[in-house]
Amino acid sequence: MVIHACDRPDRSGALKDEFLDNERVVIFEDGYGVSRSSDYIIYSVEAENIDRIVAEYGRATKKNAIVGGQTSCKAPEIAAFERHLPSDTEIISCHSLHGPNVDPKGQPLVLIRHRASQKSFDLVSNVLSCLGSEHVHLTAEAHDRITADTQAVTHAAFLSMGTAWQANNQFPWEMTRYVGGIENVKCNITLRIYSNKWHVYAGLAILNPSAKQQIRQYAESVTDLFKLMLGGHKSELGRRVKTAGEAVFTAAGRRGEPLLLSDEVLDRFSLGNAPKERTPNNHLSLLAMVDCWWKLGIVPYDHMICSTPLFRLWLGVTEYLFREPGLLDEVINTAIEDSTFRSDDLEFTFAARGWSDCVSFGDFSSYRDRFEQIQSYFAPRFPEATRVGNEMIKVILEKT
């Protein structure tokens, strides 16, 4: 098997140098050469650019070739293939449900047989088996719905945390109230997300209709709960939070099931020095997550087979908060009686609404500007956060 590949013109030279001594990899100047000569073609481009790039190179597709893509949102990808590819082309798409720094072995790899024979589908499955991933067969529509359920709001929560910390000029791991337990997950995963490319998250959020709705609901849940905290409405806050928890965890049959995460696991991965005593937190971001799932009728455990490592971590800490005896009551009391995190919560609420507006407007430029501004703020700690985050993800994968 010989691999044909290309990159953007400004990267073509470096790519040729990298594979100069590899006889099984042929680097072309552009997509025309790859399309005309390849039996199986994968478009690895940003979701916002997929239509333009397929329109340019799709007409050169080799007769009876198999074509797929790796975008995080399949609706625009499939539409581009149907619009621009020859009718004899077979379409089999894919999407690895994990980030670039995660070992693909054992991770979900979605395969979408949109327009193809069984023989071609088997060929693609065999080619991609080298990754060692668990193949999950879905339609494009099911893929977009599930990725919205498991990724869109998760990303929005962590993006909002980073925005709030930057707005308050905070490096949370340097503050004892953000070290230990659940706080370790918040800090590590926020930095992990901001260490990646902005378009990894923008395409899924902006181009997926289900994602827009869910991110909007998350912002509404954050706002509603924060107003209850500000107003001192303890009974109403408690009723709403516990109703949401019953719907998401008890109704899903999790009562009596072991927790995905434990104290020992949560305390193991810290970017700072753990204090002797934990500072109580109202965990607005977690309460709003469960409230959002409840409002949208999402049962997160239904999608575990297609979940990303980040989603499993986030589900693990929300489950821990709602099912660990006495902890939820402590959180509700803290939300009303303790103002330690009030300024952080205010900025977090602004941030959640800001990200929701950005996604609703479909503004890629604004999304990139917001993301990269905060990315530059946290950049010095990315290497350590990636190392600790990899260790954390390895543990959660072993348990789920």
Task: Outline the structure in words.
This protein has 400 residues and is of the alpha/beta class. 58% of the residues lie in helices and 8% in strands. It contains 17 helices and 7 strands. It has helices at residues 12-18, 31-37, 50-57, 74-84, 118-128, 140-167, 182-194, 199-207, 209-231, 234-250, 263-268, 284-296, 309-323, 327-337, 342-360, 364-378, 382-399; strands at 3-5, 25-27, 40-43, 66-69, 90-96, 108-115, 134-137. Helix 6 crosses helix 7 (182-194) and helix 7 crosses helix 17. The longest helix has 28 residues, at 140-167.
How is this structure best summarized?
With 400 residues, the protein is of the alpha/beta class.
Which terms would index this structure?
alpha/beta; 400 residues; 8% strand; five-stranded mixed beta sheet; 17 helices
Topology:
Elements: E1 3-5, H1 12-18, E2 25-27, H2 31-37, E3 40-43, H3 50-57, E4 66-69, H4 74-84, E5 90-96, E6 108-115, H5 118-128, E7 134-137, H6 140-167, H7 182-194, H8 199-207, H9 209-231, H10 234-250, H11 263-268, H12 284-296, H13 309-323, H14 327-337, H15 342-360, H16 364-378, H17 382-399
Parallel strand pairs: 1-2, 3-4, 4-5, 6-7
Antiparallel strand pairs: 5-6
Helix pairs in contact: 3-4, 6-7, 6-9, 6-15, 6-16, 7-17, 8-9, 9-12, 9-15, 10-12, 10-14
